[in-house]
Amino acid sequence: MNEYINLSLNNIADEHICCAIGDKKHQDGVDVKKEWIKNKLKDGHVFRKLNARGKTFIEYEPVETAWVPVEGKNYEYIYCLWVAGSFKGKGIAKELLEYAINDSKKKGMNGVCTITSKKKKPFLSEKNFFLHYGFKVVDEVGDYELLALQFEEGNIPKFSDSAKLMEIDSKDFTIYYSSACPYVEYEVKELSNYAKEKNIKINFIKIDNLEKAKTIPCIFNNWANFYKGKFISNTILNANSFEKLIKE
After folding, report:
1. Number of domains composing the chain
2. Alpha-carbon distance 3 to 218, whole Å?
3. Domain limits at 238?
4. What is the pLDDT of residues 235-246, one digit of tens each?
């Protein structure tokens, strides 16, 4: 039987947070992410992981306080559900999602929602997995979709009006990011140094509060790239992937 742990103020210092496990260059990001989680626990944030050394976890909280441009009432928003490597195919993702669903019902929520995409994209959960559990597409912007599992009729979450803009005034390469992902801290530093070295202008805009997250002008789940005023991807970039993207 699989054993799981929910992070709390009492154990977060001693527990790993899965994503960047064993990757030394991202340890600053891990520390920043842990501080972010500590501050979000008061909002009902849940980070549940397998009690093992691996990338196996689910992370969610009420949509009203979730740092994403999704509007709704009395829904849980799933930031991430990740089961990787040798832990795949063992029913762990099923158990994690079912826990989130049952936990949401116990809390009297009207449902659960998450952002996916029509075609698989990095750092977003697999759409078909959620459809299997009864989630349905309730809103969409371009290739991105908002899925929701309703427990009862009524309120349905939706993308904010700002998220549907998918464009900004600046023509410079612009990156919106938050501390909600441990990979972000290192890549922001790497790209900042790269931009200085190559004399390239990259604008970095940090999403560091709820208001900014709810009014960001694009689909957002920790990172968003704009070029020539248009949203181009949600992929977290390093120097090499940035160069490749610009050439394309």
Report:
1. 2
2. 37
3. 162-247
4. 999 999 999 888
